[in-house]
Amino acid sequence: MIEHRATGQGGAADPAVPTRVRLTGVETLSPGTTGASWRAVRLVPERLVAPGGRITVERERLPRSRAQAMAAARAAVLDRPEVLLHVSACPSATALRVETRAVDPDACRRQAPTGLRDRAPRPPCGPPELRARWLASAMVGRLRAAGHRVELSDTAGSCEGNAALYAALKAAQDRDGDGRAPLIGLVHVPPPQVMAPDVASEVLTDLLVELSDQARRARCAEAGWSRLSVGRGRRALRVGLTGGIGAGKSTVARLLRARGAHVVDADAIAREVLAPGAPALAAVAEAFGPRVMAADGALDRAALAEIVFSDPSSRARLEALTLPRVAEAAAERMERHGRARVAVYDVPLLTEGAMADLFDCVVVVEAPLKARLSRLAGRGTARTQALERMANQASDAQRRAVADVVVSNGSSPADLVDAVDRLWEHLTGG
Questions:
Q1: Per the domain annotation, does 11 fall within a domain?
Q2: 257 and 363 co-located in one domain
């Protein structure tokens, strides 16, 4: 059996309503001149037409004063755009950098080399660190697949634009619960001699299209519509496939692959990310010590699992080291789908990672607890361990809340095949 959301029509959540984007650049040179960020920003058109719908771009040049830039960033959030993207210059960059976080600027010991700075000390204005309100790693993967020179950045307080980003994220945090907050992030553009302003502007434009379509999908989902309401043009349909442990998600992925879908497996990428010689493995070994390493230098996955599944803080530390790398690789592979009409990301933590609006359709696989425990027992997982792992995942209700389609896997294998046949018809239009 499958259940799916209807496609809505009309109203403020209609994907045909233009997405409002606020795009800022930072002035970094002497008075009367502008830096690389503003050169790229001013080349982005004020009106964009994308497969998902129209986009209106409001461009703003931030002042040099850190205090004034932070005030402008807070005001931008209160103006309620759907996407707020800050752009700053980075003299050392060789590619466009997509930032993951901001730190309290008053806690930064190092100042940016030029631009936004005030000498007068002020009290801290909030938490020491705030995460960007978008999945930066997924954006990097998609932009790379489109042929752009981009990379993930985690420089936080040492970079220009940090203060404006922090102020915007803090204003959005304060507004949580008062309507949907915008997608907020920061990118750093290289010097013009490294990346010409028109090239940087092209990357920014493609990023804005991705973020705007994500905002539209969020708009539709909140109104109870399917994310499939948002157009995608000629690219493959992006499907996020998830479900609790033992629900049968991998079986559904295998059946979709047999029908022609291009399937990307998050667990397989996670194994690659922690393969011998991979940078993430060294970081995990440093974080958790020799107890998680086998004698041959490979990861002792059983030892690591024993630690992280019983300790939320350890699990969070592991995810911080691995999930961005997994998301980046997965997003890039999703776009390299060949001739497949449907690209599926088989990912267990879709709900927990707030990934739903990255996809044109979110498919959740469900099964009764008894069936899930029975399947896990057949794989050698003890009941207590299985229940503990389930408790560390999103609940069925939480997954249903983000689903466009729910596939029930509570009866026979033949019934599941029939359900996937109907799902395939739903995804491909018959």
A1: no
A2: yes
* Per-residue model confidence (pLDDT) at position 418: 95
The reply to whether 8 falls in a domain is no
Angle at the Cα of 219 from the Cα atoms of 400 and 151, rounded to 5 degrees: 90
- 170 labelled as ligand-binding? no
Q: From residue 103, give the alpha-carbon distance in Å to each of 28, 110, 120, 132, 166.
A: 20, 12, 18, 11, 6
Q: Is 91 helix (H, G, I), strand (E, B) or coil?
A: coil
Considering the domain architecture, whether residues 166 and 256 belong to the same structural domain is answered as no
Distance CA 282, CA 367 (A): 37
Residue 315 belongs to what domain range?
269-325
Amino acid at 227: R
Give the other-Cβ count within 10 Å of 178's Cβ.
9
Residue 228 in domain: no
What is d(CA 91, CA 115) in angstroms, rounded to the nearest whole number? 12
Q: In terms of domains, do 92 and 161 share one? A: yes
Rg of the chain on CA atoms, in Å:
22
d(CA 132, CA 386): 33
CB-CB contact of 49 with 209 (8 Å): no
pLDDT digits (tens, 9 = 90+) for 367-411: 999 999 998 899 888 898 888 888 888 999 999 999 999 999 988
Question: Does the predicted model carry a pTM greater than 0.85?
Answer: yes
250 is in an annotated binding site: yes
Do the annotations mark residue 247 as ligand-binding? yes
Reduced to 3 states (helix: H, G, I; strand: E, B; else coil), residue 222 is helix
Are 2 and 366 contacting, i.e. CB atoms less than 8 angstroms apart? Answer: no
40 is an annotated ligand-binding site residue: no
Per-residue confidence band for 129, with pLDDT thresholds at 50, 70 and 90: confident
Cα–Cα distance measured from residue 276 to residue 175, given in angstroms and rounded to the nearest whole number: 44
Q: Are residues 98 and 195 in the same domain?
A: yes
Residue 229 located in a structural domain: no
Read off the pLDDT of residues 304-323 as tens digits, 9 standing for 90 and up: 888 887 788 888 888 888 88
Q: Residue 246, annotated ligand binder?
A: yes
pLDDT for residue 110 is more than 60: no
Reported residue count of the chain is 430
- Regarding whether 179 and 43 lie in a shared domain, the answer is yes
- Number of domain units in the chain: 3
Give the number of other CB atoms < 10 A from CB of residue 282.
11
Residue 71 pLDDT > 80, yes or no? yes
pLDDT of residue 430: 60
Q: What is the mean pLDDT of residues 422-430?
A: 89
CATH code (residue 105): 3.40.630.20
Q: What is the pLDDT of residues 164-185, one digit of tens each?
A: 999 999 999 988 766 677 999 9
Collect all residues with Cβ–Cβ distance below 8 Å to 134 and sequence separation of at least 6.
Answer: 183, 184, 185, 211, 214
